[in-house]
Design goal:
Rossmann fold; Alpha-Beta Plaits; 2 domains; elongated
């Protein structure tokens, strides 16, 4: 796949390093001449472009019209929003991923600004901490499609309506998918006849409309 990354900091470079190792074509845009000069030779098979990723000419130079994915991961939320909007509206990039630096800005990272998937590091870390210390709580881990879909986790506690029941009999909403079950350090692939047990960590993909119903089914 052809992937363009806005932001050549540690996050952008790590993403590039991981993706180029699996055979993807990677281009990084960064406005800091020192960053470009320092790293353009250390990352093999990665194309570096010095310039402002909010500049249409720079995006054309990066070949954004041919990109399958645009990842805007600069340290500036305003830049990430502008890049996302340009990528989606002007270059029709199929998939736009954006980094959220300030959790207060997360509400803007949606389809209106061209964002398909937003990643808020503070919220993600908070969710993982909650997942580690909370039993019987509905913990949101990631958001997709501008917040319309969410990956959440629930560790089934005493009193959970789902305990000792098959997934099929719980009547999950149609727009909900049980993605995986973590049980005693093993991953259980969920099926309709899979019985949920106390202590199971249940990963579910929900929409905003189905979130409350799924919470009631798993938490009570």
């Amino acid at each position: 796949m052809n992937i363009v990354i806005a932001g050549g900091g540690s996050v952008g470079r790590f993403i590039a390093e991981q993706l180029v190792s699996t055979g993807h074509l990677i281009t990084i845009i960064d406005g800091d001449a020192d960053v470009v000069a320092r790293h353009h030779e250390t990352l093999e098979n990665v194309t570096w472009i010095k310039g402002d990723a909010c500049d249409m000419d720079i995006l054309r130079q990066a070949g954004l019209e041919r990109a399958d994915v645009m990842a805007s991961v600069t340290g500036d939320d305003e830049d990430n929003l502008v890049v996302s909007l340009l990528a989606k509206q002007e270059f029709a990039v199929p998939r736009v991923v954006a980094r959220v630096n300030n959790p207060k800005n997360e509400w803007m990272f949606n389809e209106t600004w061209g964002v398909d998937v937003s990643v808020s590091t503070p919220h993600l870390i908070t969710g993982l901490v909650q997942e580690a210390v909370s039993v019987g709580s509905f913990v949101r881990l990631l958001s997709f499609e501008g917040g319309r879909a969410k990956l959440a986790e629930v560790t089934l506690a005493e009193g959970s309506p789902a305990a000792d029941k098959e997934i099929a009999e719980l009547g999950f909403p149609r727009d909900t998918t049980v993605v995986a079950i973590l049980r005693e350090e093993k991953v259980v692939v969920p099926r309709g006849d899979t019985i949920l047990r106390l202590g199971d960590e249940v990963l579910v993909l929900v929409t905003s409309e189905s979130e409350d119903a799924v919470r009631a089914l798993l938490v009570g």
